[in-house]
């Protein structure tokens, strides 16, 4: 049995939901989820990064009423979303700026936002809970301080980005970006204070690269990639703290 909780054609505050991405469950009645862009859909995700416009948002659906609220907006490619264990706040990956934000939906800090961690060594994708109140982050693209990054180079050059967006076919732009992207997989474990406490690497991308999610279960880490038709598994006890 299936129940439709959200209609594809629905608009929120006069803007369409173009790229619904990740979701978490507050309770049986309330869902929160990311809408990565009000302009581009999933098939054009590279355009979101290239255009660099804050038109992403976090939405909240109340199933009993069918009402959809915008609880965060003006985000640069919001991606993964994950509630804290007490469900008073959540984390959201702002992939376009290589950072993660925290937003409070309950408690004494209701409505407040803070940067949980900034200037990550890659573009964060999904966020999933780890043991002891930690969080696992998959990095869709890895950034190196000593290597050229096309996205970082273009970050403060809006005119060039606009020209590429208008003149270069998306598949060619994606190929160009892949030529400069590091063949390197990286996952991070963050503390509940937003500090990196562990990481694991595949420095040559031989097994997996462009990690989109890390799920911890039964002493293992399960890694998914939006580029790979498989799930990789890593023994958690191999990670050195």
TrEMBL record:
This protein's record includes keyword Amino-acid biosynthesis: no
Keyword Phosphoprotein among UniProt keywords: yes
Pfam families: Str_synth
Keyword annotations: Glycoprotein, Phosphoprotein
Taxonomy, superkingdom: Eukaryota
UniProt xrefs under PANTHER family: ADIPOCYTE PLASMA MEMBRANE-ASSOCIATED PROTEIN HEMOMUCIN-RELATED, STRICTOSIDINE SYNTHASE-RELATED
Protein's recorded name: Strictosidine synthase conserved region domain-containing protein
Organism listed in the record: Litomosoides sigmodontis (Filarial nematode worm)
């Amino acid at each position: 049995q299936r129940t439709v909780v959200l209609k594809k054609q629905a608009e929120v505050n006069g803007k369409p939901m173009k790229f619904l991405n990740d979701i978490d469950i507050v309770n049986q009645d309330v869902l929160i989820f990311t809408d990565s862009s009000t302009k581009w859909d999933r098939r054009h995700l590279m355009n979101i990064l290239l255009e660099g416009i804050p038109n992403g948002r976090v939405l909240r659906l109340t199933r009993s009423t069918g009402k959809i609220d915008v609880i965060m907006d003006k985000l640069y490619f919001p991606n993964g979303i994950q509630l804290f264990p007490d469900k008073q706040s959540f984390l959201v990956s702002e992939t376009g700026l290589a950072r993660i934000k925290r937003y409070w939906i309950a408690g004494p800090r209701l409505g407040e936002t803070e940067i949980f961690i900034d200037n990550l060594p890659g573009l964060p994708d999904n966020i999933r809970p780890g043991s002891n109140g930690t969080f696992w982050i998959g990095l869709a693209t890895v950034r190196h301080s000593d290597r050229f990054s096309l996205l970082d180079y273009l970050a403060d050059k809006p005119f060039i980005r606009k020209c590429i967006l208008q003149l270069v076919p998306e598949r060619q732009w994606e190929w160009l970006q892949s030529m400069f992207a590091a063949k390197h997989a990286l996952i991070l474990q963050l503390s509940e204070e937003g500090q990196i406490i562990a990481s694991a690497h595949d420095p040559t991308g031989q097994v997996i690269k462009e990690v989109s999610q890390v799920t911890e279960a039964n002493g293992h880490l399960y890694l998914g990639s939006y580029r790979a038709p498989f799930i990789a598994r890593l023994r958690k006890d191999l990670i050195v703290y």
